[in-house]
Amino acid sequence: MSEKSYVEHLAGSVFDNLRYQHDWTELQILTHSPVDNSPLPRPLISGLPPRRLYLHPDDQIEILKSNPNPEGRIPETPVVEWVLPVHLAEKWTLKAFASIFDSMPPETSAGPGRVKRVLLATVHNDSTVVYYFMHDGIVKPRQN
Amino acid sequence: MHPETPRLNRYVNALVRCGFLLPEEMASSTISRSPVRISKVAGRCLLFDIEDVMYLRKNHNICSVFVGTIPQNPQQNIFMGLPIELMPEEAQVLVDKKVGYVVDDAAFHPARLAALDDDARKRYLQAVKAEGRKAQIAAAESKQNAKPKVIGTKKEKAKIKTSENETNPEAHDESLFSPPSPPPSSGVPQAEEPPPAFAITPTTSSLLIHPSAPPDSPPSDVSVVDHLPPSYPLYAHLQDRGYYMMPGLRFGCDYNVYPGDPLRFHSHFQAASYGWEEEMAVLDLVAGGRLGTNVKKGYLIGGAVVRADDDGDDGDANRDKKIEGIDKNPNAPRARAFCIEWAAM
């Protein structure tokens, strides 16, 4: 039997899903916080998606204003995303989510005043993974 | 004419004014104002004064729900009128911000009536009569406006008709409201004698309050808000940031959160409140996120922060930034909120 714990298996299956199904690159599983090197409550995955995953609605408005051309208006340059692997049957608390966000490095890719975000990778027993963005604060929804 | 029409008209006008917020109106109403009197009736916080309702809607992003029906139509469930029923959270926020105070009307009303001396009693009765006259004038005006313009010979005909025919609908209408009085003789022109005022049954205690209570004195008969739900910290947190909250039952959450007046904006979030260490199923987050995405909203979870030890507040700089022009609530509990939306991958 392997020595891996439950959360490590979980992180492993999300890791594989991102790598093989979603073509992410520069993937790594972090067990210690990049901020102060303390152990993370559970492993986080960081990686580079093939294209930009999230655009803040205010940035979208800016881009539409400056560039009325509808083609190629979403910048394709991807930014590093943080992924939190969870299982559908788990129970979480606000406190646990807060500790995850507190252990993450501050958001730098977007403009000032933007909050941290994490990609919630929810694994089900049939190996389906669904992804939801979770923002650390009140962030208005995208126009989709 | 329906007997309730003048009353309805007044409410409709006020509602229309609520929806269209003119800048000059907003500026004028921010000048210091006596606290809003919240009537507690059977444990529910009600507001009966349309001025208060408009003030809270413009200046304190609280709009709440109209619950009043027309007496003849108690099963009415759309186009409701005054009063509005404040959620306990809303009442508590107003009390915390010292914008309002809660009065137990069941205790207040008889106590105040018993305390009236002869002079005050006279003034009160006069005030009630004045209200009746006001209502009557309003009714006459709206009747005048509703009347189709008649010309030439038709007008003369109509005149003759009114002077001769006592059973025309308008005359009949007035007699419903006026105390029994001798019918006007057909020879005397009607314009010269003032028509008797409507008999008004006061629906609020406001006439009892105004003559005596000076606006600056702290109200002595303050009651407390009952049934404050555990979601209050999240409510106060969002309210403090200028969001408008409506009951969230329609979207399976605690509040629908609007970025501005709900008449002008779609809601941005469905907010669900949790305790700091209350367990939430991940399945609920996924369900909330799916529902929210389908209706173009974010799913917001949040609650009061309970800190066992004083760890770093590094991420709080943005959250504590207040929106200008909104009165801060000094007693708002510290809360933290997270938003969930579909990642589309």
From TrEMBL, chain A:
Keywords: tRNA processing
Keyword rRNA-binding: no
GO MF assignments: nucleic acid binding; tRNA-intron lyase activity
Pfam families: Sen15
Stretches assigned to the tRNA-splicing endonuclease subunit Sen15 domain: 14-144
Keyword tRNA processing: yes
Similarity section: Belongs to the SEN15 family.
Alphabetized PANTHER family for the sequence: TRNA-SPLICING ENDONUCLEASE SUBUNIT SEN15
Name of the protein in its database record: tRNA-splicing endonuclease subunit Sen15 domain-containing protein
Automatic annotation (TrEMBL), chain B:
GO molecular function, one term: nucleic acid binding
InterPro entries: tRNA_endonuc-like_dom_sf, tRNA_intron_Endo_cat-like_sf, tRNA_intron_Endonuc_cat-like, TSEN34, TSEN34_N
TSEN34 N-terminal domain sequence ranges: 36-105
Active site: Y258, H266, K297
Pfam families in the cross-refs: tRNA_int_endo, TSEN34_N
Enzyme Commission number, as recorded: 4.6.1.16
Biased composition, class Pro residues, residue ranges: 179-197
A GO biological-process term: tRNA-type intron splice site recognition and cleavage
GO cellular component: tRNA-intron endonuclease complex
Keyword flag tRNA processing: yes
Domain of life per record: Eukaryota
Region (Disordered): 137-225
EC top class, as a word: lyase
Role of this protein: Constitutes one of the two catalytic subunit of the tRNA-splicing endonuclease complex, a complex responsible for identification and cleavage of the splice sites in pre-tRNA. It cleaves pre-tRNA at the 5'- and 3'-splice sites to release the intron. The products are an intron and two tRNA half-molecules bearing 2',3'-cyclic phosphate and 5'-OH termini. There are no conserved sequences at the splice sites, but the intron is invariably located at the same site in the gene, placing the splice sites an invariant distance from the constant structural features of the tRNA body.
PANTHER family from the UniProt entry: TRNA-SPLICING ENDONUCLEASE SUBUNIT SEN34, TRNA-SPLICING ENDONUCLEASE SUBUNIT SEN34-RELATED
Family: Belongs to the tRNA-intron endonuclease family.
Protein name: tRNA-splicing endonuclease subunit Sen34
Species of origin: Daldinia eschscholtzii
Top-level taxonomy: Eukaryota, Fungi, Dikarya, Ascomycota, Pezizomycotina
